[in-house]
Write a structure and sequence with these properties.
Helix content is about 35%, strand content about 20%. It is built from 21 helices and 27 strands. The strands form nine sheets. The chain has a six-stranded mixed β-sheet with strand order 4-3-2-1-5-6, with helices on both faces. The chain starts with a helix and ends in a 5-residue tail after the last helix.
Amino acid sequence: GLRGAVGSLVSARLSPKQTPGRPALEMGGKDAVDGLRAWMASEGLEAVIITSDDAHQSEYVAECDTRRAFVSDFDGSAGTAVVLKESAYVWTDGRYVLQANKQCDPNVWKVMQTMPKGGANMPEHLAEILPPSSKVGIDPFLVPVNTAKTLETKLKAKGHELVALQENPVDGLWSNRPPPPDGKVIVQPLERAGQSVKDKLAQLRASLEALGAEGQVVAALDEVAWLLNIRGCDIVFNPVVISYVIVTKDTATWYVEEGKVEDDIRAHVTSAGIAIQQYSLFPADLASLCASLPSILVDPARSSWGISRIIAQHAASCALVERLSPVCEAKSIKNGVEVQGIREAHLKDAVALAHFFCWLEGAMAAGEDLDEVSVADKLEGLRREQDGFMGLSFETISSYGANGAIIHYKPSSASCSKLGTDSLFLCDSGGQYRDGTTDVTRTFCFGTPTDHHKQCYTLVLKGHIALSSVVFPAGTTGHMLDILARTPLWTSGLDYRHGTGHGVGAFLNVHEGPQLISYYPRDTDPPIKLGMTSSVEPGYYEEGNFGIRIENVAVVVKAKTPHNFGGVDYLTFQPVTMSPLSAKLIDISMLSSDEVNWVDDYHSRVWDSVSPRLEGPTKEWLRANTLPLVTQVLGEDVA
């Protein structure tokens, strides 16, 4: 019945299939667009929207879910393809516009930049250019509730209709679509998680009761992993398992491909009172649950329109509670055990980074022939030597010169640059360790930097220091703090086109919400709380020339203040990334004495915490690069 029909739709989404009578493709591009147009004609659609999502709204997706990349050849992590009868568009944000223009066939695609608040975006643009009373198709499981609602509203306002598709048109065209991942699941033991699954479930049920919800669909993969104290390897860089959890007052069910669940995992999950069901049964089980449950919570930013549509079909009996997932909130606040693990992961990372930067400076000074890919591989190898290393937390951004201005640049062996001595080298990288997750950016010059290089680097550094050292009352949002990182750049008429800080998981996703330090206001902007993590990463990018970014991960701690106005906690950021800054890029005359002291204090913390783990030339390199700034920059001894 329904269970079988809807279940087969969900399974199909995870398994490659062919549509009879439609030629299959090895690659996307023009052929895929032609195939989509033929299919649209047969379905009576004027347009089809291909998102970059999977069914769990993940930032990074499994190979079998890279439909937008297959269709358009653009493989950045964010973007949407829109195919109409006569035209086709790829929409992406400021980080990826240059890359999309390089990768997309200009005879097929027009690249459009999404504008934060205010500007015309994909929904408005599409509603404007469609012929009257058009139908627009989208796979409802591959778009979050919020996005679908916006689309529906904008299209309806111009007389158009958003159609939830029964099948995904891309899958039928994609002949060599990779199979769904079947990675191993591991337990995140209590001594690393710091809180048992039973306690997490009790905490969640208390939250749901307070919110007036009888249950919740947990759809985001990092929330599932955190709640169940498990980790997996279904998605590259993200240690998660493709699965759902449904929690009610007295039941909890984990929907997962059962072949992945070995005996130890089954025992771990069931001992916490959680049932295990086959992944494909999720939609039908949700539908039947809605018949008996008075209300259910769905996070509209982290759950699919497909899920909310199933619940909406039972609106008479089951109220849909839409709000931020309590699991997302609980996960973002790290317990003491997790914070210890995060500190340890960053110290392991610091050892790898010290070996890397010491080697790299020596190799460049010796005139070795190095390129962006070979140095990224070298860094990965050094991380691999660290105890408990599980993989990278994202693809290393190893970029020299003009490539550094491409904010999410990915070097490939076919088209990467050689490192040189006349421009800047930007390296943004991170690791997954059993202890925690890291994300760090440093910018180097292997020759003599220009005055302009130094001025720009120092402005970025001033913003980094201002945000890192701010003290703020509990209840403050990331949006309120973002200006601190930009003000020094603004005074010179400079800026950068990306957010300033994101949460970082505890051996989980490197980008984690709900907090965000961003220039753009959001409809829901959760405050930054004690125990959260955040990156602090201002930058500056000069197209065709160079890029600069200075990024640490920090933990939110209580600040020591003489007063306590309003009886609230006053908070500050404490960096856990322990890697020296580039003294040769600092114009010390632009820094106040407080800023110089901040750098010196940071460097002495780096030396004290990392040097015991090093010896030989790397230890000497760390000593030289953590000396007081006046010594490093001006050669003056400090009394």
